[in-house]
Amino acid sequence: MFQLAFAKTATGKQAIETKHIPLSLVDRRVLLLVDGVKTGEELAMFCVGKDVSSILQSLLDQELIEIVATAAPPATTSGVPDTAPDTLSALPEPGDLGLPPASQRSAKEMEMARNFMINTVNTVFQPNTRLSLLEAIQGCNTATELRQVYLQWEDTLSTSRIGLKRLPEFKKKLFTVL
What we know:
This protein is mostly helical. The chain is 52% helix and 6% strand. The chain is built from nine helices and two strands. It has helices at residues 10-18, 25-33, 40-44, 52-61, 94-97, 107-124, 131-138, 143-157, 161-175, and strands spanning 4-8, 65-70. A two-stranded antiparallel sheet has the order 1-2. Helix 6 (107-124) runs antiparallel to helix 9. Mean pLDDT is 78; it is low at 72-96.
């Protein structure tokens, strides 16, 4: 499932518009993110701690999504193919975000980054209304995991007019400790 790309079916598009099919928040998020390009591995970045394979299978079973492509298997440096999917491999490289390697961040900096991300979400939205994101942020134990949740944090903030306006400022502050 991790190397497959998915697209919404007509039923899936209708389910989003009319909400006539009851879906959990995580299932709805994945359905919204399915765009015909993202692979299961990329979608997993938005569902930290959740079994994305079972979510995708459920959406397939309900005929809300369909498989549209298979991504090329990732190259390995050891010459041995990876057998377990690794959602961390979909992370942007530190240089892509202008950040030093996660291993160079202290536990204090990681805690500061985690608190900043939680506080900005609770500032832009009603406190504790984005629970799945807040839980994902809180569940991060390393800077690498926190960077994985970063894209979800950025996407969530950009759904609000205030969040979108303040996002450059928030990112600049966050990047000093992330």
